[in-house]
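quick q for whoever's on today - can somebody do inverse folding on this one?? i tried earlier but teh output was garbage lol. tokens:
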């Protein structure tokens, strides 16, 4: 069941779309959370630094740590620590703190100032008045504050804070450091709220994406199911005349349906052609076999009446027909023509030399030109064209071999009756003989021109017919010239 479910294109598309959206949402959610946390943390750092700088200004302008007016409450805990780590001042109600330079929460009493009066009669070294325990010299505030994170308990409530540490130098108490914190509650609350919304919203959004993808994919693949169902019915009925439904869209499914129908049409034509071929072959084979049998039976009963010449002629005709049928079968099976280099002029000369002189004069004009292919098949083409021309010529047959650019051209013409324009394609069909060539004694079985065209096409060329200058038929064979070695 699991394999069947995920074997569906719709299920895989839905799962894939959901996973992609889930990854995108996770990445976007993580980015939003990080950006939100960073912005709120930076805001808390700015608030902490602002509070620390206010306290540092008070110290730098002469206010003693124990006289500072530190902010109270749990929003901004403050510590003032000297260079020895002693806590000199702290916010009210501070019970515990971590993440600063000191974990102390109760200030210590600063040591007595034993240098309040100097030699010039009461002026301190920075212009302050001696003898005033609450007055300090002006200090220098650092430009940048160091930042850290920690926690603090103020009036029984513990929170996380962002601390800023700002140093104040050259005070009467030495170098002091002010620690001020800003609560991270807003940042934690905002991040928690955003995370909760994402945890609730993301599954809902993924469910919507999965449902929409499932429905859209189902609708998009509905024509495919129609095609599959019709193809299954065609297979069961073996009725190649049926066609799959073509949707009215212009998408890939419509193109698939059209291509499938084209394939069915080609298959129907091929099967019909095969059936017709088998029927015609059976008919053509039946005649010479019956004639030969009759002659042999008569010869067996009456030896003096045996027509040896007729029996030989029928045997030769039967042999040629069988050879033609075998060659067509090999061509239909996809036999490759091969890549041998064949000189068409030499090939035509050999075919002419094998024909005895008869009532028809042959006028050759042969120029050497090479093509690539099967020598035996090309010899069959040239021989068939010569046989056809000699059969229909009155007194003259012309054969020419020449090169025209990238093509090798073989022309075979006669001065016979020619081929009517309406019949010039039909004569290349198998077992087709025109009315004036239907007599089996004079014509062949109607396979020669069909074989010639099939061989020409499989060699990358073409075979056509038109009127010759002498008034008869002119067959033109075009083949690609073989590349130079």
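ok took a stab at it. sequence:
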């Amino acid at each position: 069941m699991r394999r069947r479910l995920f074997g569906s294109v719709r299920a895989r598309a839905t799962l894939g779309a959901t996973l992609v959206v889930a990854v995108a949402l996770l990445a976007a959610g993580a980015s939003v959370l990080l950006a939100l946390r960073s912005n709120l943390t930076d805001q808390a750092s700015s608030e902490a630094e602002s509070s620390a700088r206010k306290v540092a200004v008070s110290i730098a302008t002469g206010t003693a740590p124990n006289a500072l007016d530190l902010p109270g409450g749990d929003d901004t805990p403050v510590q003032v620590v000297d260079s020895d780590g002693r806590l000199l001042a702290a916010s009210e109600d501070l019970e515990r703190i971590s993440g600063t330079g000191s974990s102390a929460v109760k200030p210590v009493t600063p040591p007595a100032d034993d240098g309040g009066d100097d030699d010039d009669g009461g002026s301190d070294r920075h212009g302050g008045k001696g003898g005033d325990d609450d007055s300090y010299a002006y200090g220098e505030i650092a430009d940048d504050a160091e930042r850290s994170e920690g926690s603090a308990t103020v009036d029984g409530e513990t929170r996380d804070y962002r601390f800023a540490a700002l140093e104040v130098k050259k005070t009467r108490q030495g170098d002091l450091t002010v620690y001020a914190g800003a609560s991270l509650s807003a940042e934690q609350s905002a991040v928690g709220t955003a995370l909760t919304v994402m945890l609730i919203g993301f599954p809902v959004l993924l469910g919507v994406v999965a449902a929409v993808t499932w429905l859209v994919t189902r609708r998009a693949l509905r024509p495919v199911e129609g095609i599959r169902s019709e193809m299954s019915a065609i297979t069961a009925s073996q009725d190649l005349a049926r066609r799959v439904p073509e949707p009215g869209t212009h998408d890939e499914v419509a193109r698939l349906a059209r291509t499938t129908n084209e394939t069915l049409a080609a298959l129907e034509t091929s099967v019909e052609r095969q059936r017709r071929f088998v029927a015609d072959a059976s008919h053509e084979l039946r005649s010479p076999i019956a004639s030969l049998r009759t002659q042999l039976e008569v010869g067996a009963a009456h030896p003096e009446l045996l027509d040896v010449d007729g029996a030989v002629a029928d045997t030769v005709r039967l042999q040629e027909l069988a050879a033609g049928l075998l060659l067509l079968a090999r061509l239909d099976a996809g036999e490759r023509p091969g890549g041998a280099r064949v000189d068409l002029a030499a090939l035509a000369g050999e075919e002419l030399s094998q024909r005895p002189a008869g009532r028809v004069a042959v006028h050759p004009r042969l120029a050497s030109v090479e093509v690539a292919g099967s020598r035996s098949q090309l010899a069959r083409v040239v021989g068939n064209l010569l046989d056809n021309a000699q059969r229909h010529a009155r007194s003259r047959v012309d054969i020419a071999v020449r090169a025209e650019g990238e093509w090798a051209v073989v022309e075979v013409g006669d001065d016979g009756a020619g081929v009517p324009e309406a019949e010039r394609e039909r004569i290349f069909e198998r077992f087709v003989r025109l009315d004036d060539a239907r007599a089996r004694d004079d014509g062949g079985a109607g396979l020669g021109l069909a074989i010639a065209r099939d061989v020409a096409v499989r060699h990358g060329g073409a075979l056509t017919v038109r009127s010759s200058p002498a008034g008869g038929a002119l067959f033109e064979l075009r083949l690609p010239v073989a590349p130079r070695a």
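fwiw The helical segments are 2-6, 9-60, 185-237, 252-301, 308-332, 344-353, 375-392, 448-458. also Residues 393 and 416 are 4 Å apart (CA to CA). so keep that in mind when u check it
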